[in-house]
Amino acid sequence: MDYKLLITDLDGTMLNSKSEISKKNLEAVHELQQRGKFISVGSGRLYVDAIKFARQLGCQNNFNIANGGLTIFKEGEEEVVAHFEENFYKRIVDILRYNNIPFVVMTSKYSGAFYDESSKEFVHKCKSINQDTLIDFVETDVRELKNVFKISSSYKNVDHIFLHREMERLHSDIRADIAGEYFIDLSPRGVSKWSGALRIAKEMGISTKEIIAVGDQENDMQIVGNVGLGIAMKNAVDKLKNVADVVLPYTNDEDGLYHLIHEYML
């Protein structure tokens, strides 16, 4: 198969443990583009953070960023597909507060994230994990926010993960995705990396069978399981490895994307 598009996750995949794109990965991406092929970003990061890496990769007008209920297909063009229903959103906030689970909230009206006083320690953790983040965190009464498309919360143990799964089970309009070692995201159903892949394939006039997708976390399962070639990093979670067509023998700290591009796209 002559694969035409690579959709890559950022953290744990394209980025190394220092949140950097390695020189070898970047060189491979540029060689791919010189061959007339394309790369897109599918990331759970907020737009303000994800866009800087998309620019570094030279994605230009052919990238999509899926972040909960917000999907951006081209720089400067933002398509908000799904928000939480207002009363249901308030119920989620009440449940998280009652169970002492810290969280931050994203709305389509602001490029940063909101939190309340009880989540200050979690915000500090977010900043320490992504020290180069451009996200502004604003303290407010999050329960009164509107146009919310994503809730990113911390999980400290299996009980917290179970609680999020129960919320997902009880309400068919939300989904819960583990997104990294510390985070679990709640978002409206219907918007995901996979839905972004479908949209960009249509815009490019290609089949999804001509797409390679690569990632490392549970929130990559749908796209990795549906494209032409789904790839999991060596450092990926077992759930993703189980649905992938290929498990790379390289981690994100071993220039995994360099090896992927050279083996499957050049």
From TrEMBL:
SUPFAM superfamilies: HAD-like. The keyword Hydrolase applies. One of its GO terms (cellular component) is cytosol. GO terms for molecular function: magnesium ion binding; phosphatase activity. InterPro entries: Cof (IPR000150), HAD-like_sf (IPR036412), HAD-SF_hydro_IIB (IPR006379), HAD_sf (IPR023214). It comes from the Bacteria. Gene3D superfamilies: 3.30.1240.10, HAD superfamily/HAD-like. Keywords: Hydrolase. This is Cof-type HAD-IIB family hydrolase. It comes from Anaerofustis stercorihominis. The lineage of its organism: Bacteria, Bacillati, Bacillota, Clostridia, Eubacteriales.
